[in-house]
Each structure stands twice: as C-alpha cells, then as structure tokens.
Design goal:
Strand content of chain A: 25-35%
Number of helices of chain B: 14
Structural class of chain B: alpha+beta
Number of helices of chain A: 7
Strand order of the largest sheet of chain A: 6-7-8-3-9-10
Number of strands of chain A: 10
Largest sheet of chain A: 6 strands, mixed
Radius of gyration of chain B: 32 Å
Number of strands of chain B: 10
Distance between the termini of chain A: 30 Å
Helix content of chain A: 25-40%
Oligomer: heterodimer
Order of helices and strands of chain A: EEEHEEHEHHHEHEEEH
Shape of chain B: elongated
Shape of chain A: globular
Largest interface: A-B, 43 and 38 residues
Distance between the termini of chain B: 37 Å
Radius of gyration of chain A: 17 Å
Helix content of chain B: 55-70%
Chain lengths: 225, 396
C-alpha cells in the first residue's frame, strides 16, 4: 500500500549533514498493524513523517498506491492526509474551544462527520462526554478523542506517533487496543519505544541510528516467547 | 495511481465545510480574544468618525447659515446711491434668464453664533410685500407672531436664528448698547418664521431712517434654483470691476472649499497617521494572536488541511472581526454624535451631520489596511510553516 524505497531524511546541524533516516526500504501492507520500535533518536518518528507525507525524503522516495508522494503538490498531499490517513500524535492535541465531538468531526471530509464522530465516541466509551471541552477530559480521554479523530472516515492507514507516551501503562495499552480494534480494514503504523505496546502488531521494525536493524513478525515473536 | 490534482472525494461532500471550524464558532467561543481586537477597531472608527464629522460641522455650518443666499442674487453698490438704478437697468435688460422678482432693500450688520465663534449676518430691511415674498421663497410655512410694522423697530427671524440667539417673541434682536448687533433703537422680535433657512428681516423704512449707508441694495430672484445659478454666474462676471459687491451662493461655496482645503489636507495627514498607527498596532496584535494558535494550525495542517484552507479561514475570521468592529464602531459613533447633536449642537442651531458620508468614508481604510497587513502577516507565517515542528513540540 505504501512503500519506502531507499528513503533518507537529512537535516543540517551547524552545517553538518545528519541523517534522521538513512536508506530505508520497507512497506506497509494492507490491513496490517506495523510497529516501529526503537530508542529515542533512532529516527522512528522521522520515518513516520516520511511515510505519511508530512516530510518529503531528501533521498529516495515514498510511494502510496504506486505514486511518489514527493511528486504531489503540498496541497494534494494535505488532501490525501485528510482523506486517506489518520493521525494520532504523542500529545493529545485537541482544539480547546471545540467539544470532543467537534474535535473528532474536523477530520471528516463528508457531510455526516458529526454522526460518525458520535458513533466513534460511543464505541470508544466517550458517549457521555462528547459535548465536553478538552479541559474537562482526563489525559486518557483526550487521547481517546484523538483516536476517534484518526479513525473518522475509515482511513486506509492510521499513523500513530508514540500515542501512549503521555499516558500511564494501563491507559496506553487501552489506547493501542482501541486503535487496533477499530481500524477496520485500514492499516496501523505505530511508532513506540515501548515493546509491550506492540504485542498485537503483525510486524515490528526495529530501528537504530536511522536505519532498519531488524524485522520480526507475530509468529516469530510468539515463538521467541 | 494518485493524480496530482486532487484525491478522489465525492463531489457533494467536498463542498460541505465542517461547521466546527467556521469563523463564527471560533469568534464566539474565543470572545475573550476576539473582542479586544474588535474593540480597538471600534474605538478607531469612533475616533475618526467623530473628528471628521465635528470638523465637517464648520463648513456645513457656513453652508447652512448662509443657505438663504441660494435663492437670491445680492448686489450692493459701494457707497454710491446713483449706481443702483444703473444696475437695475442692466439686470432687467441683460439678464440671461427670466427674472421672477427684483427687490431693493437696505441692510444692517448683525452676528450669529457658530462652533468657531461669531459670524456676520445681515438684517435685511424689506417692506411687507417683499418680506412676505421672501419668506415664501425661503419655504416658510407660517410665522409665529406677525411681520414688522412699517417704520417700527421690529423684526422677524427664522426658527434656527431664534434657537441660535436664544430669541423669543419680544426679545431684543438689535440694541444701541450691543456692539455686535447694533441699532439706534431696540429692535424687538415680533415674528418667528417657520423655515429651516436662516434669516433676519426688519422694516425697510426703519432701516432707511436709522442705518448707514443710505444706499439701496438689490436682491434678484430667478424662477428656480437652476436659473438662479445661471443668473449668479452672469452677475459675478457682468458686475466685476464695477463698484459693487455681488453675493452669490456658488461664490460662498467656492470660498468655503478653498478656505478649508488646507484644513482638510491636515486632516488627511492626521487620519493617515492614525490609520497607520492602528494598522501597525493591529498587525502586531494579530501576529501575537496567530502565534498563540500555532498548535491549532500545526494540528490542522498535519491531519490534512491545506495552507490555503487555513489562510482562508484566518482571513475569514479577521474579516468578521473587522466588519463587526467597523459596523459597531459606526453605530457607536452615530450614537455619540446624536448625543452631541441633541445636547450641544441642535439647541444652538449648530450644523452637524451625524451620518456624515465623508466621515464614514474616512474610516474605510481602517479595516482594509488591517486586513491587508493581517493577510501578509499570516501568509508569511504559513509560507514556511512546518506542522511537524508543532506536533513534535518544537514550535510550542
């Protein structure tokens, strides 16, 4: 569905060339839960930004359904993100003046976003809090609203960038379970430094110093256990 | 394959905007932030409207006070009584338009009050038939009291003059002890003419006996204002160089415009500086205001809103704030000017246009310049805006 072909992301630190990601080749398959695991600074978030079109690779390319994202205009990439992708970030970013339901509905492209948002919040156990403003919700509840926003419109891929980082372990696990259980036929790409959050992942890529170090799947992990 | 034009989205759904992100929702739910901006624009509009309307009240007062001269041509020979018959002859023979009436009169000097001090005003000495005609010509519907008697120290004034000088029936208009409104005898008000025009009329015979110089002046009336204007232009040209002063309304208007040209040039500079200061201040405020919303913009762009959509949204919000500030500002300015008019101007018959179109026009650059500055500021910010910086918490 989406593939990286020798993709690198370079930035310059005081004129010195630094690779956030280097020569990465991988793919995200349909309907899979792909985990990207690595320590802080290993380049996992950068890889997520490349795959989701938030960043354009300095070298190599990212293809979504056969089309290079770099060839699309900034505007088209934005529209693609809204329609085909869902995002959950490390911090539960919500617009403070919108209710939980409205915060979910802003990710919608069609007319029944409100109905979908209400349905999703019901499914995520926030049905009674849909009219509350973000400051009236707990951290875990806010992140669940973000999950609902990512799920709205049945995106082809959901990108989750350390979605459990700001939560305690129990709430973190719950958020991952909700994401996985409600993604339907969409794929889930989740970045984390906590291996326990990827127990349900179909595949896990291990990143180190901006490169893929290894890959394992559910079967091999079960075997290892 | 994905076309570079647009990802496939059902056409009907693309047109529907999410109401949660409408300008109205943002402005209402963030009133604490948007109202101060509205307030600044409101105050600017009130200030500009107030200054310009009050300034305009001066030339407006001149036009209003001497508006009666619109209906007549006045010719005053300079100190030679023999000139009057010659001028009458010229008028009758050479006038370019049919004349409705020619009146000979005497005049004495008086003064009326204005917002910028006292202005000269003529007391016209007319006989009764001419007084009646004059009042009728100036649109007087009726006279409270009566007309001056022949040879008596009596006068009729119009309602605005009575208000201006606080006169009632029986009040003294001219007096031997009043340097500004002098007459050898006390001239009392015996009639108040109900017309919006300013006028003071006393008796011709009284003037002939009591006032200097002993020269008959001429008033010429055309059938309508268009003919009157033609006649005025002709008379100014014809009697130029003769020993006569010609009073014509268009000359008064031209002189007023010329006299106030410098004042308006100063006003333009003052208002220009004011608009510039307000625009810079608002530009800075909007910049700070948008900086506080970086997380919002970063999040929306990250999840798929285009820069164009965000810029359009910000400009729509700014436009609403500006329109609100501008319209409420105009309404407040109107209210304040109405209060000033009722409490200060109208009781003294000072002219003030509370819905002065020139004053309103002067406020138009305020919202436009602020919108331009806001658009530029936000555009510059969005041009190199990286949503990743926000979601990674580097920019917040």
């Amino acid at each position: 569905m989406i593939e990286a072909c020798g993709a690198s992301l370079v930035y310059y630190d005081n004129g010195k060339k630094v690779y956030a990601c280097q020569d990465i080749s991988m793919e995200v398959r349909e309907n899979e839960f792909l985990g990207i695991l690595g320590p802080s600074g290993s380049g996992k978030s950068s890889l997520l930004y490349l795959l989701s079109g938030l960043k354009v690779p300095s070298e190599g390319e990212i293809r979504y359904m056969g089309t290079s994202l770099a060839r699309l205009s900034d505007e088209t990439r934005s529209k693609l993100r809204l329609k085909d992708f869902g995002f959950v970030f490390q911090q539960p970013y919500l617009l403070g003046y919108l209710t939980a339901k409205e915060n979910v509905a802003i990710a919608g492209v069609d007319g029944d976003s409100n109905a979908q948002a209400m349905d999703l919040l019901d499914r995520l156990g926030l049905g009674d809090k849909k009219h509350r403003l973000p400051h009236e919700l707990s951290g875990g509840e806010r992140q669940r609203v973000c999950v609902a926003r990512a799920l709205l419109g049945h995106p082809n891929i959901i990108f989750a960038d350390e979605p459990t980082a700001a939560l305690d372990h129990r709430n973190g696990r719950h958020v991952v379970q909700l994401l996985n259980a409600n993604r339907g036929h969409g794929s889930l790409v989740m970045v984390t430094h906590d291996p326990s959050m990827l127990e349900e992942a179909d595949r896990v890529l291990h990143l180190s110093d901006g490169s893929i170090e290894s890959e394992d799947d559910l079967a091999s992990r079960a075997f290892a256990q | 394959m994905i076309a570079d034009k647009e990802p496939p989205t059902p056409p009907s759904s693309r047109r529907k905007r999410v109401k949660a992100l409408s300008a109205g929702t943002y402005l209402v739910r963030n009133a604490g932030r948007t109202l101060p901006l509205t307030g600044v624009i409101l105050l600017a509009v009130v200030l500009i409207t107030g200054i310009v309307a009050m300034m305009n009240s001066i030339p407006l007062s001149i036009r209003t006070t001497y508006s009666y001269s619109k209906y007549l041509l006045g010719i005053s020979p300079r100190g030679d009584e023999n000139l009057t018959p010659k001028m009458l002859k010229t008028l009758k023979k050479q006038s370019p338009v049919p004349l409705e009436r020619i009146v000979t009169f005497r005049a004495s000097a008086s003064q009326v009050k204005s917002v910028v001090g006292k202005w000269p005003f003529l007391v016209l000495g007319l006989n009764q038939p001419d007084t009646l005609y004059f009042l009728h010509k100036l649109g007087a519907t009726s006279v409270l009291g009566r007309l001056p008697d022949k040879g008596k120290p009596e006068a009729v004034v119009s309602e605005p003059v009575a208000r201006n000088l606080q006169l009632k029936l029986g009040s003294v208009l001219l007096s031997p002890s009043d340097q500004d409104n002098y007459s050898p005898q006390k001239v009392k008000v015996v009639g108040i003419a109900l017309t919006k025009e300013w006028l003071m009329v006393d008796d011709l015979d009284y003037q002939k006996v009591n006032h200097f110089p002993p020269v008959d002046n001429i008033m010429v009336f055309a059938r309508n204002l268009k003919d009157q204007n033609t006649l005025d232009h002709w008379a100014v040209k014809t009697f130029k160089g003769d020993r006569a002063i010609v009073f014509a309304y268009y000359v008064l208007e031209r002189q007023t415009d010329e006299n106030f040209k410098t004042l308006y040039a100063i006003l333009d500079v003052v208002i220009g500086v004011l608009v510039l200061v307000i625009t810079i201040m608002m530009g800075m405020l909007i910049n700070i205001y948008q900086s506080q919303r970086l997380v919002e913009f970063g999040l929306l762009q990250a999840i798929g809103y285009t820069k164009k959509q965000l810029l359009t949204r910000v400009l729509r919000e700014t436009t609403w704030v500006l329109l609100l500030g501008w319209t409420v500002g105009l309404a407040c300015a109107y209210g304040l000017l109405e209060i000033v008019n009722r409490k200060l101007m109208y009781p003294n018959a000072y002219a003030l246009d509370t819905l002065d179109p020139i004053a309103i026009r002067y406020t138009v650059p305020v919202p436009i310049s602020i919108l331009v500055v806001a658009a530029l500021t936000v555009w510059l910010r969005f041009r190199k805006f990286d949503p990743v910086g926000v979601v990674e918490r580097r920019l917040v």
